[in-house]
Amino acid sequence: LVVGVSNARPVYLREVARIAYGARTPSQYVWFTPGAAAGTPDAAAATTTPMAGQSYPALTLTVTKKPGQNAVDV
Predict the structure, then answer these.
(1) b/e string for 33-58 if b means 16 or more Cβ within 10 A?
(2) What pTM was computed for the model?
(3) How many angstroms separate the CA atoms of 71 and 50, rounded?
(4) 4-32 pLDDT tens trace
């Protein structure tokens, strides 16, 4: 996952953070359901545009700064 660019080179998440993988059984599930503002897609976008009222699986990503670090400088 590219999280930024430095000196015209991509900065990858693995270069600036410790990534922990887990295979735990989920205790909760997260869903995303677009509201009326999502609109109705036209035929060309029907395969990529979320439709209002339909639910989609979602992902929750938690990112924290290191203790003692200034969040503005990070």
Answers:
(1) eeeeeeeeeeeeeeeeeeeeeeeeee
(2) 0.38
(3) 34
(4) 999 999 999 889 888 877 767 778 888 98
